[in-house]
Amino acid sequence: MNGNGWWKTTAVGLGGAIVGLLGFLFLQGREVVSAAQVSRMIQTESPYVADKGKIEERALYTARSLDQVASDQREILRELAELRSEMKGLAGQVSGLAESVQTGRPRR
Q1: 3 state DSSP class of 60
Q2: Is 70 exceeded by the pLDDT of residue 1?
Q3: pTM of the prediction?
Q4: Is 108 helix (H, G, I), strand (E, B) or coil?
């Protein structure tokens, strides 16, 4: 075997390897998804997208419930303020009655 045969064999082997590698890379590259495809898949196929409507609905329900609780609390506080005012008036009357009982003088 002379020197030319060795180079020829090596060149053919390397050429075949390069062609095989390019074919492999081409086939693998076809299966790779792009950023746009990934974004579309997240927006349409993600389980979180399906739950998004339920989550937003629950958040809205919770917000409305909290608003109702706050409204109820304001009403209760208003009624407590009225009761406190009435109790102060009654306490004054009771105090006056107690004083009149102790002193023996009728209260005016």
Answers
A1: helix
A2: no
A3: 0.44
A4: coil
